[in-house]
Amino acid sequence: MCTLQIEEEAHLLHICGSRSPSPRPRSGDLSLFDICWDDVLIPKVAKYLSLKDLFNLRCCSRVAQRFAEASLEIRAELHLSGNNSKNIEIAFKVLARCCHRLEVLHLACCKWLKDDLLLPLLKQNKQRLRAVNLNECVNITALSLQPIIVECKELRVLKLAKCQWLTTGAVDALTLHQSNLVEFDISHCGAIGERCLIIFFRKLNKLTILSLANTPSVTDQVLIQIGNYCKDLEHINLIGCAAISDYGVRALTVHCPRLRSLHILRCLRITELSLAALRQRQLFYIDRPPPPLQDVNAVAHNNAYNLNDFYPSDFLVY
């Protein structure tokens, strides 16, 4: 290697170590990495590079590697949902080591993800995380959820759909430690009990988006508690909740004035008796189209009871 190349490499390594401006070398041309990292390259350039770009850059030289890892250190969002490419576990270990300021973490459908990979990343970023998406992460356990529940004090969004490892105990821990969630998804989680959900929704009174699709333990009693305590609710997904009926939907109609959408496909016990009032709201969305007018009149004629007068005899107070 010639003297010129040695001097340039030494100069670049000095910049990478200090991450501050330094005098131009006496010989050689100005390179990209001579530009100040903290003030220019990382905030003005690196933010436009994708993860793929950063990892490609990381392979170019030792200086490029240090620059890429310095850029990852201040990255606020990590989106890997559905990424099951070859050697992704190796790349994730690099991310877990370098990322220290993550606020948004999307790892949905990552079949390769396990506790030993996820826990180091959570440990590095637990103070800042606001949104965590672990939908369909089937190979992790409730052990990974523990630092999220206990230590992520800024958490506002948590998605755990199709996580069969989610238990009543984990939801009880959420009830104790997380009261500021605004979006919550536990669709297809069959291990959670009705009583657990009733207590949980009494605590989470800031929810605006809620998905309970195909969760067997969702009953009218659960919806009544949601209506009583989640006054700011705007969107709710109840697709496939076969145990709910008009009485539960009526509770949402009366007590959730900000409700803007309702998903109730495959909820056979829900009829136009409860949906009619919601259809009268402006800009309100229901995923079930209204039936012909004659069908509505027939239902009203065949049902003599009044929803306003209903009080279920088996209602449980916990």
UniProtKB/TrEMBL annotation:
Domain F-box/LRR-repeat protein 15-like leucin rich repeat: 65-252
Source organism, top-level taxon: Eukaryota
Pfam families: DUF7885
Database matches in SUPFAM superfamilies: RNI-like (SSF52047)
GO BP annotation list: entrainment of circadian clock by photoperiod; locomotor rhythm; SCF-dependent proteasomal ubiquitin-dependent protein catabolic process
GO cellular component: SCF ubiquitin ligase complex
SMART domains: LRR_CC
InterPro entries noted in UniProt: FBXL15_LRR (IPR057207), Leu-rich_rpt_Cys-con_subtyp (IPR006553), LRR_dom_sf (IPR032675)
Protein name, UniProt field: F-box/LRR-repeat protein 15-like leucin rich repeat domain-containing protein
